[in-house]
Design a protein that fits this description.
Length: about 400
């Protein structure tokens, strides 16, 4: 059947199988013909043709698909020619050439898919590898401690027994009397203390661990695991450099209304109690920090090696680093928490008529006698809630910053 409309002829062959179609736009027919002088649009359907791919065009002028040939007229088919359009118009026996024509936009889509999208990567080159570690450690410390500042405040109150005996009670008391800003009390001082402390700690651990780790074929330099020794050394270094900031931060958190700001607290402590007061509790702090740092970094390094061996990779992403660091923080904080409690009691001193302890052993025995074993783990819940994510965020930020801050010799 055929239909004429607006100079366009639509011709469809009777067929049962709709598996393929041919679309042709031949040139305008000669004047005087049966054409309207417009375009000739032929849409042919057949029953038995199953092409390999694409659409096929015939180099015919009146019938077929494709571009016009050089001849102005096509030879008329033989009377006994087969009725199959493929054999009639496209087969080699008919003297025609088959041309594979891709669908419109198909090749463009393939080219677009073939293009590799380059991810944006920020790289800042630094001249010194030690400077890179210090900057990365400082950023990691500031970000991690700011994120968990409310938990740090609640933990400190629970350790010294002020503003309630539970996490919920301390939180409600702070929100009632001080508002949400009370949860971040001393956070600025905390960042000032933690940023350089974490920078020194991570820098020392990375440097010492690389130095102590034997290369291939070398003998072990220390009898203990290198990461354990490097972690202990890192804790001692950071504590000696930043301990006065830790003491002032604790005083600002506990003694509300006594000090106006960080500078006022520093001057008042030095003037009224002497410079040595800035290092009150240093020995128990070192005793508490050394096992914590050693355990933390040893667990982190061990878990990293286990992850690399398990997944057979040398690269660890940000999320696995966060989880590994958090697990290391949970292990180390649980193992050394009683020493942390004793250290906080020694730092507070006789504020508010509290008992003064002579040393860490005296503090541990007194707390155990007065409050039992539970007193040594008072505040462990919020402490883990704070230390575990803080450790994970710190390690994650440190590793991410090291990737951003590349050395000059890095690729």
């Amino acid at each position: 059947m055929s239909k004429r409309s607006g100079g366009v002829r639509l011709q469809c062959a009777e067929a049962v199988d709709w598996g393929c179609c041919f679309l042709a736009v031949p040139p305008a027919a000669p004047s005087g013909g049966d054409s309207d002088g417009g375009f000739n649009l032929a849409w042919t359907l057949h029953q038995s043709f199953h092409p390999a791919s694409g659409l096929f065009a015939s180099v015919g002028q009146q019938v077929g698909v494709g571009f016009p040939g050089t001849s102005s007229s096509a030879p008329s088919p033989e009377p006994d020619a087969p009725r199959d359009p493929y054999v009639k118009y496209v087969s080699p026996e008919a003297g025609h050439r088959a041309v594979e024509t891709p669908l419109l936009g198909h090749d463009v889509e393939l080219r677009e898919k073939g293009k590799k999208k380059k991810a944006f990567k920020l790289k800042i080159k630094v001249g010194n590898p030690h400077l890179k570690r210090l900057i990365s450690g400082g950023i990691a410390g500031a970000v991690s401690r700011t994120a968990v500042a409310p938990l740090e405040t609640i933990r400190t109150h629970l350790m010294v027994g002020s503003n309630g005996n539970s996490t919920t009670g301390v939180f409600q008391s702070i929100m009632k009397h001080e508002g949400w800003t009370g949860l971040f009390r001393g956070n600025f001082v905390n960042v000032i203390r933690v940023a350089p402390s974490k920078a020194i700690e991570l820098f020392t651990f990375d440097t010492a661990n690389k130095f102590l780790t034997p290369k291939s074929g070398e003998q072990q330099k220390v009898p203990l695991p290198p990461s354990l020794v490097a972690g202990a050394f890192a804790g001692v270094s950071s504590t000696l450099c930043t301990y006065p900031l830790e003491l002032i931060k604790t005083r600002l958190t506990i003694q509300r209304g006594v000090y106006d700001n960080f500078l006022h607290a520093f001057v008042k402590i030095v003037r009224e109690e002497g410079p040595t007061e800035l290092y009150r509790g240093l020995t128990p702090s070192l005793i508490g920090v050394v096992p914590y740092a050693a355990t933390n970094y040893f667990a982190y390094d061990t878990l990293k090696k286990v992850y690399k061996k398990m997944f057979k990779t040398n690269e660890i992403g940000n999320v696995p680093t966060l989880l590994i660091g958090s697990a290391a923080g949970a292990i180390s904080s649980t193992a050394t928490f009683p020493l942390e409690v004793a250290r906080k009691h020694l730092q507070v001193g006789a504020v508010g008529g509290r008992k003064v302890y002579k040393n860490m052993l005296h503090a541990l025995l007194s707390i155990l006698e007065d409050e039992g074993v539970g007193g040594l783990y008072r505040g462990l819940g919020p402490s883990c809630m704070k230390l575990v994510p803080a450790a994970g965020i710190s390690f994650m930020c440190y590793e991410a910053c090291k990737k951003v801050l590349t050395e000059k010799e890095d690729d």
